[in-house]
Fold:
Amino acid sequence: MREIALLFLKLGVIAFGGPAAHTAMMRDELVRRRGWVSDERFVDLMGATNLIPGPNSTELAIHLGFDRGRWRGLVAAGVCFIVPAALIVTELAWAYMTYGDAPAVEGILYGIVPAVIAIIAHALVGLLRTVMKSIWIGGLAVAGLVAYLLGVNELMVLAAGAVLAAAAHLARNRPGRGQLHGLYVVSFALPAGQPVFGDPSGGQLVQLFATMLKIGAVLYGSGYVLLAFLRGDFVDRLGWISEQQLIDAVSIGQVTPGPVFTTATFIGYLVAGPVGAFLATVAIFVPSFVFVGLLTRLTDRLRASPWTSALLDGVNATALALMAGVSYQLGRTAIVDLLTAAITVITLLLLWKTKLNNAWYIAAGAVIGVVHALA
Structure:
């Protein structure tokens, strides 16, 4: 348990760059460096977490904790991955409320993000050998990448990958009882609809908790989808924060390490101080622990049935395509000159030739970014 807790605490501190970067760092630590899980198991968990609502990289951390330490590991991994980001965001929210602006972090990110892009690229190359089981699956991944870059919603890309892979399998094999049972399992995995929360009584804190719990329970997709949910509830419906405060909150969630969902922590602080930050954080992440707890039994069943195994292969291929698409878009905005390009190339070479911990690359990028900003 100590090993799990320390590893995910470290990841919670250094995991800049969003879900794709988080996934790459987890793969490096748990597959490449420690051998806790195989690449095949890792991509299965990565694909399965895309079937449920919530922050995918956080849910992947929770599931990896379960694989290593069962239920205590599930809790330890999730809490330790979330807590560093939540504490950092709470401190930034205090500074924001005290001084009227968010502390500048652009200098640090200037050096960190290029290193993160190299970490993602290295992980993608390693995962390709596991995911690309056939020319057909490779073509599906390429199609998913093209669709994403053309602006198709990531949930549509994942759903199409799953459906096409399953349909191709069914076209080659006559469905039997086991495959129909697999269909039942998958239908159980996907939520039927958005739970309805009435207008909670008992004050603002109860309403804050209930609203964040609702968002955590039904939200699929990226930080932009989170932005839409938060705007609808906290700006339009409740009127607790302004549009500018929402934009600042999302910016803080994106530039700090750990889950982007810690945007909720920032909003909770704006609404009700430290207590609000704590309640908002707990509420938006609790559904992830519940969903992963239910998913732990389901993942093995998905791989056991030929029909659902084909479906999972499709999800894995398109999830990897999304990871590649995000890293490409991140690279276009982060690699802006010779220095950032050099950081990316040198980090990639070191990842290929050595087994240095990712924390060193993140720290080196941060130092370079600070020096560049002060120069």
